[in-house]
Amino acid sequence: MSWYTVTGRKGCQLRAGSLLSSHKVCEVECGTRVRVETVKRVVAGDREVERCEIVLPVKGWASLRLLRREDEDPAAPAAVEEPWPAGAKVRLEGLAGAPDLEGKSAVVREAPAAAGGDERYVVALGGRLLRVRRARLAFLEHAPEDDVYAYEAEAEAAAEAATLFAKMRRWYASTSTAATGPYPASPAALRAWAHYGDVKGRYFRALEAAEAADAERRAADAEAEARRAAAEAEAAAAAAVDGAAVPVGRHAAALEKLAPAAKKSRRTSIMMAKAVADAEAERDDAAPALEGELFYKTKVKSLLGKEKMAWKKFHFALVVDADAGPCLEWAARGSTMRVVLEGCAVCRDDAAAPTGKVYAFHVAHESFAAGPKYFHAASLVIRTRWVDAIADAVADFAAAAAPAKQTAKTARRASLALEAAVVHDEDEP
User: Fold this and answer.
1) Structural domain boundaries of the chain?
2) By C-alpha distance, which of 12, 9, 338 is closest to 149?
3) Is the sign of the CA dihedral 206, 207, 208, 212 positive or negative?
4) Predicted pLDDT of residue 429
5) Is residue 26 a contact partner of residue 14, using CB atoms and an 8 Å limit?
6) pLDDT of residue 373
7) Spans in the chain with pLDDT lower than 70
8) What burial class does residue 123 get, using C-beta atoms within 10 Å of its C-beta: 0-12 exposed, 13-18 middle, 19+ buried?
9) Which CATH class is domain 284-410?
10) How do 307-321 and 325-332 pair as beta strands?
11) In this structure, are residues 10 and 42 in contact, taking their beta carbons and an 8 Å threshold?
């Protein structure tokens, strides 16, 4: 491993993998010292580029041409082993049969399998491909001076125009077109259209307005459904109270037959159960143990209708529910989301860092079908505060629930014994 310095004017982009198609992790500013562990060549379009794996201060892959090794002379050209890779710039020289090509610079498109003066390279010059012997070429530089990501932006713009072409044409037909004229006939013509940027902005604003109206409609439907469910639950509760009146009467009659000591034991168990319920109600009404902003990886939908996983910031609260125990709660799309933490393990993600984030942690439980829930904080202090608070809440709830569970078991045994005694008394002549 060696130390390098970022020399690109705009810094360099770090990606999750060595291929340029992998997703972006972050950007590193010019002048930053980085530690490189691996260097490899990958194919990018019609040429090869050298990519390097950076392990410090963050992990990711970057273009080697945007870095300079600290023990290299900045003014000296980088040494490149033969055969020269695709993308290298060379100069034609010693071509007696083609004096018009003498001294011209070209770009290597295909390199021979081995080095040697008689081996032939395929080079691009003025829109032509030429096969030239190595002896007639002089190496100039390995990487072009233009932006290495320029072709990515071009491909993304072409893909966007192809995606929007049909959808935006249907919308454009229903709007006023007097100021902008007829709609282009192809995605390529759409990109060259003088009004493309203005019409695209109006189209996206129309989509946002439609999505807002749809969200309001869904919220109104959800509210109506909640009112209907509340009415049904109230009716079911009333029916349950009426149905429980008869068993309660029979149970009261059976208690009258119990001895005074048995009545006292039964009353004690009821008081203990009430105390446990009161304690749980106090925990439920208490303020959140911790609240603040965290980033959570969730599924989002773009304006074009595509779904993807992305980090979104929410306001989280660590609360203790009377029934479910410690929970992480946050508001999303007009509803409250919850992750139950009872029996969960919370871990910092410093070593493996599967999220690619610096201050990440996850909450895991065997019941999570989709795997652990991943979060990341804005700083190390905030992450430490959340991890410690979640671990303490899970441990405290487990310790507090143990006596209540034992009390419930004891009361149940006593009730069964008393009911058996009542049945025995009724069977005697």
Assistant:
1) 4-53, 88-139, 146-172+200-226, 284-410
2) 12
3) positive
4) 44
5) yes
6) 85
7) 1, 45-46, 71-80, 142-155, 244-246, 248-249, 251-270, 272-287, 350-355, 404-405, 408-409, 411, 413-429
8) buried
9) mainly beta
10) antiparallel
11) no
For the record, the structure tokens of 392 come out as: 């303490």
Parallel/antiparallel/unpaired status of strands 2-6 and 67-69: antiparallel
Whole-number pLDDT of residue 425: 46
Q: Report the greatest alpha carbon distance in the chain.
A: 131
Contacts of 397 (CB under 8 A, 6+ apart): 320, 325, 326, 342
Q: What is the pLDDT of residue 405?
A: 67
H and E: helices and strands count for the chain: 5, 19
The DSSP annotation for 91-128 comes to EE---TT-GGGTT-EEEEEE--SS--TT-EEEEEETTE
Question: Is 328 in contact with 372 (CB distance < 8 Å)?
Answer: no
27-67 tens-digit pLDDT: 888 888 888 888 888 877 667 778 888 888 888 888 888 88
| Prior bond of 83 cis (ω within 30°) | yes
Give the SS3 label for residue 314. Answer: strand
Per-residue model confidence (pLDDT) at position 145: 44
pLDDT of residue 351: 62
Token pair listed for 255? 């208690």
CATH class of 88-139: mainly beta
Give the integer Cα–Cα distance in Å for 52 and 64.
6
- Given the DSSP bridges, would you call strands 335-340 and 12-15 parallel, antiparallel or unpaired? unpaired
The C-alpha atoms of residue 308 and residue 305 are separated, in whole angstroms, by 10
Pair 122, 129: CB distance under 8 Å:
yes
Residue type, 397: F
List the end-to-end C-alpha distance of the chain, in Å, as a whole number. Answer: 94
Provide the token pair at 154: 């071009």
What is the residue type of 223? E
> Alpha-carbon distance 361 to 355, whole Å?
9
